[in-house]
Amino acid sequence: MFASVPVTHHANLFEDRKELHQFLLACKQTLIEKGLQKVVSISLPSKPLDPLAVLDRIAEPEKLHFYWEKANQGEAIAAIDTAAKFKLEGVDRFSQAQKFIDSCLANTIATGALDLPFSGPHFFCTFTFFDENINGDSPFPAATVFLPRWQFSCQKDCCVIVANTVIDSNANIEVIAENIWQKLHQIRLANYRNFHLSNYKQKLQPQDVTDRRNFQSSVVSALQSIRSKHFSKIVLAHAIEVNSPRPFHRVDSLNNLRIIYPDCYVFSTSNGKGQDFIGASPERLIRIQERELETDALAGSAPRGKTAAEDAYFAELLLRSEKERREHRVVIDFIVDRLSNLGLSHQRLPIPGLLQLSNIQHLWTPIRGKITGGVQPLQILAELHPTPAVAGDPRDIALSQIRRYEAFDRSVYAAPLGWIDHRGNSEFVVGIRSALIDSDRARLYAGAGIVAGSDPDKELAEIQLKLQALLKALV
Ligand SMILES: C=C(O[C@@H]1C=C(C(=O)O)C=C[C@H]1O)C(=O)O
């Protein structure tokens, strides 16, 4: 499936300065002979480290980073600075991004401990919701893919450092080897921080980006279109903004998110211009591990109860609700249909289960399949995004109506973000329960699925609940 990456074995490259230097020199020599440019990717096991602490110490605002953590699986990755990057505006972005990854891998020499979790070259990807930024006001391009200069990961107790560097016949190996060495030294001194849950002393005062009555009247208007069979489902979003007396602290906010939502994917991605998109998403778009594909239908929501009895009551109502089940069903049918388009077979349980988060619960149907016929991760993403969990049905009509109803740009909200490795393993989530942070300003987004039977007040209440998820973690 993937262009095979040449692999060599060197155990001590991060332990022995001389060996690192010799290895890079040998790489350069082969390149001079062949007149090429190559990425050299070195993976080695590390002492226990906290990737969030490393992000805190070494990420710089004007450089790209990507952070990813699933606390209940003991998994975290921090990707910092770029060895190679690709940005694209406009349509065709998924296939162009996949081409970039394939050609980069075809020019990569991978070495070191390549059999550990998260070892070897990984590409980190951030897409916007729409493939075209019509108003030109999105802080992120339609597609950003990068191979980081540094990658720090842990899966349970197994921690790995990956250093990626570009070498060509003009490369100054002395300087490259010295830089890698210095950075490793810096990280060894700063791989841990005593984090604690922090909260905002002053209560943040959110402002609606657009009047919330607009949201309710959009729901009423959408319900009319649903009645006249123009479409059957649309997901409408609302955004709020908060100003803080001091710049928001990205890493402390992420630490809060990983503590409060251990069963969500906590993420942060930067645009390299000082703006970050952070969140704690419950919605997995794809996971591919050794050609096994998992995707989730997640739609239909209810609050959590304050007592066990109230919680069970809300769960029961959600599971039995014909309207919520219909809203959920649209997502399943869409995903199944799209997987079939790619020739991928699938399995799923006949009735939805529940995904219970700390403040909200959702109807949830995991769908599994097998990757066959050379289908690549971004091909699957191109088929699936956006699902009716964040757009609607039929998709094209829902998308044009979202543009009409929502007076703000979704940018990266509700769009795919995740990673792809050199073996074709991959994981992407949908960027919901999220906020765009720009120094002391944060814009938070949340949406709700509208189908026949939706009540504008209840949909607004659901959105407020979803917005709270992030608001309470921001510091
Ligand atoms: C669109 C969002 O969430 C989506 C909408 C849901 C719903 O309407 O029930 C549930 C989960 C998500 O698929 C969001 O959180 O912003």
From TrEMBL:
Enzyme kind, highest EC tier: isomerase
SUPFAM superfamilies reported in the protein's UniProt record: ADC synthase
EC numbers: 5.4.4.2
Keyword Isomerase: yes
MF terms (GO), sorted A to Z: isochorismate synthase activity
Keyword Isomerase: yes
Keyword terms: Isomerase
Residue ranges of domain Chorismate-utilising enzyme C-terminal in the record: 212-466
Reaction equations catalysed: chorismate = isochorismate
UniProt similarity note: Belongs to the isochorismate synthase family.
PANTHER family tied to this protein: ISOCHORISMATE SYNTHASE ENTC
Protein name: isochorismate synthase
Taxonomic classification: Bacteria, Bacillati, Cyanobacteriota, Cyanophyceae, Oscillatoriophycideae
